[in-house]
Amino acid sequence: MSKRAPYPVSEPWPGSPKYWRDLEERGRLAQESAEQASASRGVNAPEFSKGHIETPPSDEAWQLSRRGLLGAMAATFAVVGAEGCRRPLERVVPYTKMPEDVIPGVPSHYTTVLQRRGDAVGLLVESHEGRPTKVEGNDQHPSSLGAADLVAQATILDLYDPERSTTPLKGAAASDWATFEADLSAKLAGYAADQGSRLRLLMPPTLSPTVLRMRAALAQRFPKTRVHTWAAVNDSNIREGARIALGAPMSSLNAYDRARVILSLDSDFLQTETANVRANKLFAGGRRMHSAKDSMSRLYVVEPERTTTGNSADHRLRLPAADIERYARALAVELSKNNVTLGDVATSAAKTTPPDGIPAKWLSAVAKDLAANRAKALIVVGSRQPPVVHALAHAMNSALGAVGATVNYAAVTDADELDAATDLKALTDAIAAKQVDALVIIGGNPVYDAPADLGFAEKLAAVPFSVHASLFVDETGEKCSWHVPLAHTYEAWGDARALDGTASVQQPLILPLYGGRSEIELLALLANAPEKSSHDAVVATSRSGVLAAHALANCAPTPDGNVECHDPSGKVVPVRSVDLAREWNRGLALGVLTRPAAPAAAPALRSADVAAALDKATPAGRVGPGSLEVTFAPCPKMVDGFHANNTWLQEMPDPVTKLVWDNAAILSPATAKALGVQNKDVVRIAVGDRAITSGVWIVPGQADNSIALKLGWGRKKAGRIGNGRGFDVYPLRTTQTLGFAVGAQVNKTGAEPYFFAQTQEADHTYNRPIAHEATIADYRQKPNFAELDSPPPRALPLWSQQDYSQGHQWGMTIDLNACTGCSACVVACMAENNVPVVGKLEVWRGREMHWIRLDRYWVEDPKLGATEEDPLAIHEPLMCVHCEEAPCENVCPVGATTHGPEGLNEMAYNRCIGTRYCGNNCPYKVRHFNYLNWHNDSVWKETGGLPESLQMQQNPNVTVRFRGVMEKCTYCVQRIQSAKIRSKREYKELKDGDIKTACQQTCPADAIVFGDVNDLNSQVSKLTRTDRRFGLLAELGTRPRTTYLGKVRNPNPEMA
Amino acid sequence: MAYYEPIIELGEAPLVQKGSTLAEVTDDIAGVTERPAPRGWWIVFGLALMFVGIFTVCVGYLFWRGVGVWGNTSPVFWAWDITNFVWWVGIGHAGTLISAILFIFRQKWRTAINRFAEAMTIFAVICALIFPGIHVGRPWLMYYVFPLPNQMTLWPNFKSPLLWDVFAVGTYFTVSLLFWYVGLIPDLATLRDRSMTKGRQMVYGFFALGWRGSNRHWRNYERAYLILAAISTPLVLSVHSVVSMDFATSVIPGWHTTIFPPYFVAGAIFSGFAMVETVLLIARTVFKLHRVVLMRHLELMNKFILFTSLLVGYAYSMEFFIAWYSGNRYEMAHFLHNRPAGPYWWAWVWMMVPNTLIPQLYWSKKMRTSIPVMFVVSIFVNIGMWFERFVIIVLSLNRDFLPSSWGYYRPTIIDVGTFTGTIGIFFAAFLLFMRWLPMVAMAEVKGTMPQADPHHGHRGKHAPHSEPIAAKGTLATEGAE
């Protein structure tokens, strides 16, 4: 049976010539065309030649004609027969009309931009026949520099989430857009009377010039309407700090690559802070060691909980978040003793005493190190620290000469944005005062994530008319009088400015899957703006001078929002729309519409204001065994909870704890002992009269008396995947304690131990030579320290070796010195290679399928002051190392895994019968077995298999593996092959860098390098010849193709 | 079979209870298949069938959903499945050892138990072969392991020890089956001749291959039996050696060990004898075979168990010593830490105590001639040897080179059901065998009796039969209790 649908053959146009074989056929054709003509007049349906006229179909469907009955019987048999087939029969329908620029099988890439908190990341999205499948970083964009992080990678799955909101809801009843628009415009007409003073909007902070323009348009229509901003994870403290120190809410652009000494005060700048991708890239650049002669930066981290940044530190001090302000003040005092001129700031800072029990060197030696690296030092502060700490850091950076060297400032997109908690409180107060008739919430989920003391849910219920627009019918959506679906970033036009001011267009890749509209369109609806579609609005913005000003030479925006261009003599010339169109297209192609001019002159530091703020501020209360601290941080995966329904992120091991599908209350071993709790115990954590319960996880290196809580879990209305996962910690978070709260009480609840699942249970290397590291001094003494510890065997091989000297020989290096453990590669690999999700229970059994594992070991080293209670960390990404003498290949009875001519260890899924012998014999345990039909028989079991929308995400160039076969990293063989095909077609040599594996492409630290090891000039072969190189378990004689570069730590000798 | 004349000076005793006649032996053994089954047989058979049912349900579920219904995981890709396979293959060893090697060494005492042991071999190997068949991820493609000519010129990987396994166990099963059947032919003829119904006559007649007991038949039979014994003998050593290579040729600490082939063979004989004894003790009691299966046979088997227990104990200690002596950190971590002090320390204790300590009881003659003691010990050895395979497979895999990949394996209810199900299959097959086939080799036993002596009845001065023996009166030192 052909799987191809028959071509519909019809007469091309009426009266076209007919062809016949013989006269008999000619007669028949003539008769048929006569019958067709009568049928088209509705007379009869011709199915047989003359004399076999069939009864016309009647209205009753069950009254089948003879032929119809035969057809139905055939269909029944086909269906019954197909039941027994393993794979369902599908029709392949080719394009009959080729869409422009689409070649079936050749993916296209589009630039777009993803707004997140204070920064927008430029992306390049791969699309297969109109289906976006994979997100990659855009190397033209300053916030991406070619990389993306784990959340950005996972957004593609949010797009296809089958539980997205699909239709406007009035109350709980399904409605449609027309009804909504009618209802809304009727209501709006009523509000116009008093200039909209009883209409309020609530939105997350925005980076989009078009959204700001629409808000301005709204203000024109309803001058008294107020737009409030709220996001549970926000940069308000950073903005306030800059306002104190610089006079305006500027963004800091930190040059982590140029800094030689970096001090992070509770800032997880590599993972959860704004602009983390760029920070990771630059930070790795500042620590890259090509040889032992190079130098690298030094990172000090002071933080309460272990983070990716803390794990990358050379020196890490665990300190409760509440003590960090006092630490910063003491450091300022210490700096001024080291001839760093801080003036009255130092005097004001000296008001408090340093926190208890910190080693003296953490002030004296750190201050000395910073002072000795003037203009090469950098102090960064975490967004949960109060504004005064940020202001103090600005003062210290300025005094250290960092401004202009390691720190630059840029204007923020929305300078009028208020402090998030204050702004939201203004809204709830207005509701309480009965001043709000209508509330339109565009994006965000305040019922779930608003500060607990505001009682947002009750306040919302008191608003007569409320609208919620979001991707999901979430906790907020179900409480509003209207819910309307919002379009996903990849479905709608938009624009955004990056942290440094670079403007990019958010380009959609697909029409809205569920009929959602973008926030621009909703605002346009409210403001009754002339541009109804977001595309028109964004184009208009770009032409109105807001975006285009910098793009065209000799053009400048005018005060009335237009563009004025001048010829060289200064005469005004009209703006040619062809220039604008050209700039627009160039901007879309690059992913960058306009770049900011050279960094503006740094505003002068307002020392007096900083000193005054320091005088006024009172550091948080003391943390101690009787008065514990809880800290709130965005989850590296869920962020504020928005991504809770994302299976990839749910199953991503937390970079620090390696927990999946859950968060936990993190305690230090000493605190756990003092409280008498153990891992998995369920505790009640109370701050004042608010309390939550949470499972406990003990992490060495957590500050004593501090409990780390991750936001974004315990959702009640996230969807099938996210509902009830983990513990909701928002009930503890109030407007006053958005970052941390002191005075928590913890009791065991006595409930059954909570069921946690981890991907890695053993935390230590047990002195095995598997993750090599050295201090920079030792490295200079013994450059090949890594290989010396685990040399390859000297014994001769038993049989003749395969010749690998010809052709391409693929290989990879992973620089442990660059890897921060951020785990972006894991999600990138899942997206690229259709890696299934197995669910919490199966992860607990040990059956997770991630092709890359990010091994994380605790390192105890007395020389570096790393103890069992407070160890250092090392991350080691591990995927198939493609052994040249692969133990898995010998043992497969059917030869399903064999060596390719280009050095790849290849899996033939069709040949695999699933003896799992290869998995046993793999010393790295990087092979993963499809114990069940994961796509159908795990988290999606209840829906009868992977939902169709999620199937759209899958990469058509990678086989979706069936149950019972073994799988593992392929070095992205599909990318190798398509690059080879392309080079062959274009008669070009394959260049180094033409092939990037998915993990390499997304790695913000450039830790992963892939290429041809036979090409002596390729980056990978140069790296394999560096001194830090070692083969993991090379002493077994496996000759791995993936080799590692040992980690180098740069401790301060004076800290010892 | 020539008459076995005990050397009285060495303390030897006759192999069949004194004074037994040929007819009595035939009646005892053939009678079991002719009388209605005792109530005990039905109870045990019903129980066994229940487990067969459990097995069917478990395997059906396994095929429906996939190997994930078991507890196997990463890194423990093999667990109960291969543990059971090796355990059953091991049990299948005693049969061929008893029938072939002891035959070639003219150990005439084997005649009482060889049929039993051979049947056990067949059924144990069937149970063993089930596991490689069902443990694969895609059982419907199992035929890929056979070298079948095909258009794509795909060929199995002859480097893989799993493939060697397929051939080794397959050969062993075929030869064992042939050997068993050839030995059965004279006895099947006896059953045919005693048949009282047409049906029995037809069936036994068919399988007796027209045996008439002529001199020529006997000569060919003896020749064939000897040849098959000679073929089987190396198989006893080869099968478990090859099975051990599944592990020994790998790189995993705990598997990568040169001691494995002899150690596995010793272990196989050890567990095989224990299982023969377990089954034999039940059959001897239920079917009252005291005339043929004497305490002497049981004691000899116990001596074998003691001997192989020492071999196995030696292998265990040698693994420890070499791990320490080699200085290899992974070997040391496995043998010196993970086994005795790791998360599965209890499995290690279950291996060490029943296999090396409990059989030491057999240094005492009182112990090795006590039926209750030997029954309990044989059960312990069966359990201990199962745990030996569990320790080798699961404990080596759960913690290998990289601590990041370590994991803990937990069996599921389906694992338990599949395993106990094969025990049900084994006993069901065995009970059918005991019911329908002569469970002791009648012809061979008769060959060892005084009546088989060509001079029997006219030895010396043509004295009346049995007189010389009776006259000495010193032979009846032992008999059935």
Summarize the helices and strands and which ones pair or pack.
The complex is a heterodimer of chains A (1056) and B (481).
Chain A lengths: L22 H18 L25 H18 L24 E9 L2 E10 L2 E7 L12 H10 L9 E2 L2 E2 L2 H15 L7 E5 L5 H13 L4 E4 L6 H11 L4 E4 L6 E5 L10 H11 L11 E6 L4 H4 L3 E4 L5 H14 L6 H6 L11 H12 L4 E5 L5 H13 L7 E4 L9 H13 L5 E5 L3 H4 L6 H6 L3 E6 L11 E4 L8 E4 L5 E4 L12 H9 L6 H10 L11 E3 L5 E4 L5 E2 L3 H14 L16 H10 L11 E7 L12 H5 L7 E2 L4 E3 L1 H7 L6 E6 L2 E9 L7 E6 L28 E9 L8 E2 L14 E3 H6 L3 H5 L20 E6 L8 H10 L6 H6 L7 E7 L12 E7 L8 H5 L5 E3 L5 E3 L9 H5 L6 E2 L18 H4 L14 E2 L5 H13 L12 H5 L5 E5 L6 H6 L4 E2 L11 E4 L1 E3 L7
Helix pairs in contact in A: 3-24, 5-16, 6-12, 9-11, 9-12, 12-19
Chain B lengths: L21 H13 L4 H27 L14 H12 L1 H12 L9 H22 L25 H34 L3 H10 L7 H34 L11 H28 L7 H32 L2 H13 L3 H13 L7 H4 L2 H28 L14 H24 L5 H6 L11 H4 L4 H6 L9
Write a compact overview of the structure shown.
The complex is a heterodimer of chains A (about 1050) and B (about 475). Chain A has about 1050 residues and is an alpha/beta fold. Chain A contains 31 helices and 41 strands.
